[in-house]
Amino acid sequence: MPLWLFAFLAALAIVSALGVIFQRNPVHCLLSLVVTLLTIAVLFIGEDAVVVGFLQAIVYGGAIMVLFLFVIWLLNLPVESGPAGHLALKLFGSLAAATLLAELFIFLVPPHLQVKYSGHPPGYGSMENLATTLFANYLVAFEVTSVLLLAAVVGAVALARRGGAGPRPATSRGAAPR
Amino acid sequence: MIPLTYMLSLSAAIFAIGVLGVIIRRNVLVMFMSIELMLNAVNLTFIALSSRLGSMDGQVIVFFVMTVAAAEAAVGLAIIISVFRGRDTLHADELTLLKW
Fold first, then answer.
1. Which residues pair with B91 in a beta bridge?
2. How far is CA A63 from the centre of its chain?
3. Pick the residue with more confidence: B19 or B87?
4. Which end of chain B is more exposed for a tag (fewer CB within 10 A), N or C?
5. How many CB atoms lie within 10 A of CB B45?
């Protein structure tokens, strides 16, 4: 990946990430987040992680973001008006984030950061190589992940079911106020 | 290849932006999006280091992070929907049931 392309992608990622946290309308926040995720997917592909890059674009930029979008539509959120949060909170939040950033940067300059570069083995980043690693070295983690996903699906259905566990009857909210 | 320092600096910047979003935004949904930002910054670190080290382990871990993020998004959004149904707000300062 040429350096100018990286610079462009990095600028795009940072600007759209700032857009996520500074826009008032949740839909605009979400669209900024999608731009960030797709930029990161392109960076993945530039780092020779082609399969994971496409997974990022499809699973993150596609599936998870559509889930967010559905929730925003479902809740019919208003645009926030007026200043959000206290000024002191913003000030100290910015200070904390800046401190964290400085702290991370200290460890990213070369004297601290010592990585022994090694060339890519043949087939690096290919589907075959990824699958071999996944199903040979990480098989237990993979199976546990499937249990996690099952638990998440059951939990989400149980939580979102209208009038599932609570005392509220199924039709009270839709009919009563009108 | 892009110098590793640039790559990690970008991911540190995105992570810090995510932290800032969680702190200053009071909308639960936007806080959730900031958490996704942080997860992606960490993914970028994994991919960059895995590419420099010539090992596939980082990519596999990114795969797992994506799975956990999907599960987290499903459960978190279900919680958000059920909170909104009961309280009619997503403002974090108004959700004070567990506040001492």
1. B27
2. 11
3. B19
4. C
5. 20
